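Quick entry, no commentary yet.
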Amino acid sequence: MASVYLYTILIFLVSFSAVQCKTPTSKAVPLYYFNSGTWSECSLSCGSGTQRRPVNCLRFKARRASRVADSLCEQHNASRPLASRDCNQVDCPAEIHFKAPSDSPCSHSCGGGLRIP
């Protein structure tokens, strides 16, 4: 009797596990997002330079990303990262200009005179 009971349970388990659940097939919905590259070097060493980086709209669909027009990301309200920013916001050191000596005669003929422009 126990073997019949066990046999019935096995048949039930086998038939239950053989049932396949069907899920409705859905088309992959593309995802649009902005992707940004790395920042460039600062354009100036002092006095307010600029750094730039590439920013592109990408469409991700079916595990593949492809570059598309920026307007598609904008239509899907994707957040756009900055493409440029200020850098090296420090004052530059004062510049010192020297003039070449003029052709005026020296104030002394010997002993360290000065040439006056």
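second:
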Amino acid sequence: LSMDVPFDSPELEQRKKYSSFNFIAADTSQYAVNHLVTFAISSEDEVHTVEEAVRKLTAMDAKGKIWTQEMLLKVNTNGVDLYDVESTEHLEHYPLPAIQRCEAILSDNRFHSLLLLVCQDITQLKP
């Protein structure tokens, strides 16, 4: 925690909230995240690459069409799972063998950092 954050600031409160969710167990790690969007990358869609997905996210955000959903991201030996923080409902599961690319992107826009997962279903020829 940097010393330049006032003790009564919203940023400090957010850090406290996230730190209560983030822990590492023997075989599971979990992190509080803000889920933005899920895109299918396909030849039928306008999104063919990760870079196009990032451009589409930026364009959607500029039009006010992006809102965050607080989620809990859990990583274990079976894969990556997303849970709704409020309801604890299991929303998405990505088996580890399906994850073809995992990339963190730092940016200057509203979303300072993005975690991108590119997954390939066993029925797809390419992600």
